Amino acid sequence: MKKTILxxxxxxxxxxxxxxxQVSASTGYAIASAGMQLGTEENASxxxxxxxxxGEGVNFQIRGTYFFNDTFGADVSFGYLNGADxxxxxxxxxxxxxxxxARARAYGASLxxxxxxxxxxxxxxxxxxxxGGKTEAVVSNKLVFxxxxxxxxxxxxxxxxQTNYVEDFHGVFPLGFVAALGYKYDLNSNFSIFAEAEYYGxxxxxxxxxxxxxxxxxxxxxxxxxxxxxxxxxxxxxGFVKKTTYVDELSNTETDSSKxxxxxxxxxxxxLNVGITYRFNSSAN
Length: 285
Hints:
By secondary structure, the protein is mostly beta strands. It is built from 2 helices and 17 strands.
């Protein structure tokens, strides 16, 4: 028993004598690693699927790493993703022009193990969690009245409605995987710079969405607004609800239009990061 306690004490003291803590800040850009269908593009010749990931975009990270010995460490990081615009619907037809994009504004955290292959090359892998944020959809839709519909309303031929709205989507907190391979270069005993390739494997299940702003105007062919605010967020047109809840099951007799079947959307990405690290002096120094 005494021998076991002594051995554990020696290991603990040796670990504490090496223990080293460092913090780093980085930024980078990520692209879709395994694009899934996010939307469609339609014109007079046909319809085409659009593939991508909401994980694409610019990210910023702050990381704290604690090394237990010369090789192994633990890493906790917090980051923000400023996602790139993704096409969810694009229509270019004589009587309709739609431009709908969505982009992520997400906060995440990860807990990883770090392994030093050499003094300069390292790898890390662990769990990834999205802890906050939203996917923001921005929609613009121009719908031209038929000549009959325009005449019935006393409008000239070519008049149209112009609808613009913003809808925020929120998801269930997901658990994913993160892995990175990096190279660091020491500037001095405390500072170093690094570059790394990083992979995120994660998808987000939608929980709810809410329309944040909505406006429909009736516009004449010359661009003059004939009716302003025909529909607003307080007076939504048929087919729209302010808040939608996503569920796993719907009855065949369900009549509540504010409920829809849930779906998963991709956030997986592959990116390159660059940053700077500050090492605190270890107790061995």
